[in-house]
Design a protein that fits this description.
- There is one protein chain.
- The protein is α/β, with parallel strands linked by helices and about 400 residues long.
- The protein folds into two domains: about 180 residues, Flavin prenyltransferase-like (Rossmann fold, 3-Layer(aba) Sandwich), CATH 3.40.50.1950; about 200 residues, Rossmann fold (3-Layer(aba) Sandwich).
- Helix content is about 35%, strand content about 25%.
- The protein is built from 14 helices and 19 strands.
- It has an eight-stranded mixed β-sheet with strand order 12-11-8-13-16-17-18-19, sandwiched between helices. A five-stranded parallel β-sheet has the order 2-1-3-4-5, sandwiched between helices.
- Strand 6 and strand 7 form a beta hairpin.
- The relative contact order is 0.10.
Length: about 400
């Protein structure tokens, strides 16, 4: 892929009060090295971790720290800074600051800059793993996604507190790569992408059905990553409780047959990514009334559901097809056999017991060139790696 830079881009780098603030200094340096003009805004808490003088030295500009500064004459430096920027990146973004953004609070310089913006806003969360997983934080993130804020990370791993899990801020080089891919050129710009996600539900009677443990998190992360890469994305989703990723169009379905119809209605497309855990079987004839419990047991006649991925891959106008294989044993052998059987150029393999319902995953990408392992990481990070791999094939 051709080299790109941030030359001519004005970036407002926001720094909040977390241990990861020290990484923001390196990020500032990398942004400048990539050609960006950087202005830094800091919260009072951030100044306890890194001094404004450090960022002034790295950015070459005075650091914005207080909404009451009147150095610019009219006292509107906070408004002017947001108007001059091409994008705002808050790294690290603490749980407290994400809550401010989600609720529209503007009680300090940086939150006011973000609320007054008319440009894209990126946030790189950094917090303890329990804080990241807490219900209020997840509600705030869902609101930010709905508001169009682009969330970069976090990664999973060892944290400053000694605990391990999701919540680590992405490394400065990773954040730079995300800006280059998403804001500058978009690796899938101009492409149409269809993604399936979540489980399907095959009714047995009006209240019971056949389904599986898929949460839909990986499919939603893939759809979000494709959108970040510039694609027009349709997400065909089975039943989940997840918020629709910003900028993504969702079509809700329940059964495998409904999912097949929705996917075919979206073709032709450039890329089809079949992440959904589609039920392999359905009940031959679902009962119209609730079945009553019987001591003698219940026997169901099952019939195969349509193979959506194989059908799409066999079309004359087939898009670039990506399959997913969740296995419980012999991962590589079963996954490669599935890739060849369905005749798809790329298949993503994982062990179901290590992935279903979790926020992180360990994956292996299989294509004609061989195996490409992705060590365990947050599903958002993995989704972006998958999209980059797809873009490399397309380009």
């Amino acid at each position: 892929m051709a080299a790109v830079s941030l030359s001519g881009k004005n970036i407002l780098l926001g720094v909040t009060g977390g241990v990861a603030a020290y990484k923001a200094a390196e990020l500032c340096r990398l942004l400048r090295k990539a050609g960006a003009d950087v202005r830094v805004g800091m919260t009072e808490a951030a100044k306890r971790f890194v001094t404004p003088l450090t960022f002034q030295s790295l950015s070459g500009k005075p650091v914005l720290t207080s909404i009451w500064e009147a150095a610019d004459g009219d006292g509107m430096a906070h408004i002017r800074a947001s108007r001059e920027a091409d994008l705002i990146l808050v790294a690290p973004a603490t749980a407290e600051f994400l809550a401010k953004l989600a609720h529209g609070r503007a009680d300090d310089l940086l939150s006011t800059l973000c609320l007054a913006r008319s440009v894209p806003l990126y946030v790189a969360p950094a917090m303890n793993q329990a804080m990241w997983s807490a219900a209020p934080t997840q509600r705030n993130l869902a609101q930010l996604h709905a508001d169009g804020v682009r969330v970069l990370g976090p990664a999973a791993g060892e944290q400053a507190c000694g605990e391990t899990g999701p919540g680590r801020m992405l490394e400065p080089a990773e954040l730079l790569a995300e800006l280059l891919a998403g804001h500058v050129h978009g690796e899938l710009a101009g492409r149409r992408v269809v993604v399936t996600a979540g489980p399907t539900f095959e009714p047995i009677d009006p209240v019971r059905g056949l389904t599986n443990r898929s949460s839909g998190k990986m499919g939603y992360a893939v759809a979000s990553a494709a959108r970040e890469a510039g694609a027009a994305v349709c997400l065909v989703s089975g039943p989940t409780c997840l918020a629709v990723p910003a900028g993504v169009r969702r079509v809700d379905v329940e059964t495998a047959a409904q999912m097949r119809a929705a996917v075919l209605a979206e073709l032709p497309a450039d890329v089809f990514i079949a992440v959904a855990a589609v039920a392999d079987y359905r009940v031959e004839t679902a009962a119209r009334q609730k079945l009553k419990k019987d001591a003698s047991g219940l026997r169901l006649e099952l019939t195969p559901t349509p193979d959506i991925l194989a059908e799409v891959a066999a079309r004359a106008d087939a898009p670039f097809c990506v399959g997913f294989a969740a296995e419980t044993e012999n991962l590589i052998a079963h996954a490669e056999a599935k890739r060849q059987r369905k005749n798809v150029p790329l298949l993503v393999a994982n062990l179901a017991q290590d992935t279903f319902g979790r926020d992180s995953a360990e994956l292996v990408l299989l294509d004609a060139a061989g195996r490409h392992p992705l060590p365990r990481a947050d599903k958002t990070v993995q989704a972006r790696a998958i999209i980059r791999h797809i873009a490399a094939h397309l380009n």
